[in-house]
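Input (structure):
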């Protein structure tokens, strides 16, 4: 069984309550990357290598927090091996599957970076976006920057695209956040 690598181009949107200049006060770590996952054993080594390359190219201090949401494959063994090889890797393991929101919550509790980036483990979110996400938080003063899929796959069935469009339209209307295109996109950065 081979994992298929799909990179879907994303665009970035910044959100603040009011656009205001905020003073950036750094702590000891630039970025925390939180990656909730369930049964992603094949993608984890490549994803970590990709994140590591981007961070080193830009000279960021960072940590990668993998949150294993009760995987039944060998994802935890992969994370454990990465933790022993690389000091920036940290792992959290759930005994059973609780879902993405609790996994993100636990990751946020442990995060030490000035900017926290959440991304999915399936490699559909590109770590190459990390420098721009950080720049928008640090330099542009946004509290939240969210990615969204610019080009959906042409073969996506209407049974997937119509509910997604309805959900996003409803979420924009209810939240009052009109410039966020894809509320469900896993690629987000937080102050």
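Output (sequence):
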């Amino acid at each position: 069984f081979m994992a298929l690598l799909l990179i879907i181009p994303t665009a970035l949107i910044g959100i603040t309550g009011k656009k205001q200049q905020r003073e950036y006060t750094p702590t000891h770590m630039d970025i925390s990357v939180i990656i909730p996952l369930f049964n992603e054993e094949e993608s984890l080594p490549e994803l970590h290598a990709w994140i590591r390359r981007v961070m080193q190219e830009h000279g960021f201090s960072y940590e990668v927090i993998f949150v294993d949401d009760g995987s039944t494959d060998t994802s935890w063994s992969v994370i454990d091996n990465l933790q022993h090889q690389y000091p920036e890797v940290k792992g959290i393991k759930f005994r059973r599957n609780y879902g993405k929101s609790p996994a993100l919550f636990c990751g946020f509790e442990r995060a030490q970076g000035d900017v926290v980036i959440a991304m999915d483990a399936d490699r559909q979110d590109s770590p190459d976006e990390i420098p721009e996400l950080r720049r928008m938080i640090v330099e542009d003063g946004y509290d939240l920057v969210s990615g969204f899929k610019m080009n959906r796959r042409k073969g996506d069935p209407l049974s997937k695209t119509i509910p997604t469009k309805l959900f996003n339209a409803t979420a924009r209307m209810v939240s009052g956040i009109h410039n966020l295109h894809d509320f469900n996109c896993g690629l987000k950065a937080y102050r």
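Notes: The longest strand covers residues 31-37. The first helix runs from residue 44 to 58.
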